[in-house]
Write a structure and sequence with these properties.
heterodimer, A: mainly alpha, 3 helices, 2 strands, 11% strand, B: Arc Repressor Mutant, subunit A, Nuclear Transport Factor 2, Chain: A, 3 domains, eight-stranded mixed beta sheet, three-stranded antiparallel beta sheet, 18 helices, globular
Chain lengths: 90, 481
Amino acid sequence: MDTADILHAFRSGADAVMIVGCKFGECDFETGNRTAKRHVDFAKRVLDSIGVGSNRVEMFFLSAAEADKLVAAIGEMVRRVEELPPNPLK
Amino acid sequence: MQDNTFKKSKLDAAYYAVQSFRVRCLVDSREDILKTGRYTEENLDNMTMELFNQEVQKFQLWQEIKKTGSMKWEPLLSYARETGQMVFDVVRKAYEMKYEGLVTIEELNGQIAQITTTAADPAEIRPIYEQVSKISPSVCSGCGMCGGICPLGCVTVENGKVTIDESKCIHCGLCFTVCPRSFLPKKLVDWLVSHGEAAPVDVQIGSYLEALSAQTKLPDIRAVGQDGGIVTTLLYYAFQAGKIDAALGAKVGTTLWKPEPFIMRSKEDALLAAGTKYANNPTLSALPQLKNYATVAIVGTPCMMQALRKGDIFKLDAKLWNQIKYKIGIFCMESFPYEGIVQIAKQLGTSIENAKKMNINQGKFFITNKDCTVVQAPIKEVTQYARKECHYCYDLTSESADISVGSIGSPAGWSSVLIRTPAGKELFDGALAAGFLEVKKLAEIQPGLPLLVKIAGTKSNNSNKHILEASEKKQPVPAYK
């Protein structure tokens, strides 16, 4: 998962991008979640810098058993999309 | 910031920019870099974002040029205006693309006439941002800038040679970018120093506002200064007037006559750094130690001034460049490895232990001994000990500095001074107003400017000659165009 992937999603018309990763210490790939967070943090700075806005991307850390938290996270992203203007590049 | 701007061209440019390995390296290794403590979080993030922004603008410029395949000077000015960029910044990006092999630049009468895209693809540009070790040891100036800027501290400069710890190197290419011997567009240096040609640019000694001859009035400094004691006086004044809280220079360390980087924190410290040291010393490798000071001055040789100017031009680590208020350059023909200085002392019939002062004047190398006897030899006889790497350099008078100081052109006990930028002028005029300096116009002095220009010309001709010879042998050479 790379900053470029996030930007590509916006180029393709996404209104928002949500990344879900395992909690720190629980990653199957050991450090995959840390790498992802690093790229998401950078993506936020980039999105602010180019005017798209950092609140359109978010990363959530959950374990597979926390279905309720996943639902809440999705709800959060949907709320943001409803409050923000749509991506004109759709 | 949250203004919902979804411009396709900007998103496309950002998409490519984040993939530029110069940006990616810093993002991917962010934790490792912060662990070394060489950059604060704010510095590192600013530097990364600045690099990202430049890659975005560079990509957009490349797209614009590609529309018709080439761009002439007038359209370039319009483009700068339309995109709200300074012309200098657009030109700089064009030069970067030139070194990356993405464009060629044709000049007419020293001015850019046309920029034309080549068939290369930005995805192919990685090769030019090599590690600094790819520059070739035969060309290294020993300034230490690579060691200073490396985010992970894996570059060491010792005895004029560079070593890279491969296990830590992330191939970010910063060392290569700031190196004065990789690529250094002289045109951009002159432009920046002369403020877009507001000040005249002399072919041999660079751009300057005033040419003076000066001497310190402070007896403590006169006792330890090399010629006029000007550099020490400027630092002394800057500390006293609260203009700087630190200065980076060179001081002889525990080994006699072997200089090492030295961070001054007071006017008393400035006196400890007085006197010319002819042995090569990687002063700039100590740059990370300046990060907590608000305003600093840096004293160094022409190559060091060039390296700092490159950091300026290519906007690396923005906060550090804003901290460096005064770049004080000294005149330099060549430097010597430490062992060379030891040899020279022997050749002159004395020793490092006996030497009290060394100076080069009127074509001779002098050593004044502790017992006040003086020994000497023509420069021709000692130049064999000089660093061959220094002979690629064209710059005698530190053309990239804010103010340059040296003995050539002034009589004994005085220094020639070239004030180049408003910052240099502010520093000098302040010391003068404080009553610390005696000053005359260099035009009123013998041998004066003509000698300085002549010797500067000799150095630059030698540089051209060496570069030509090395190019013919297909050896690596600095790119000064």
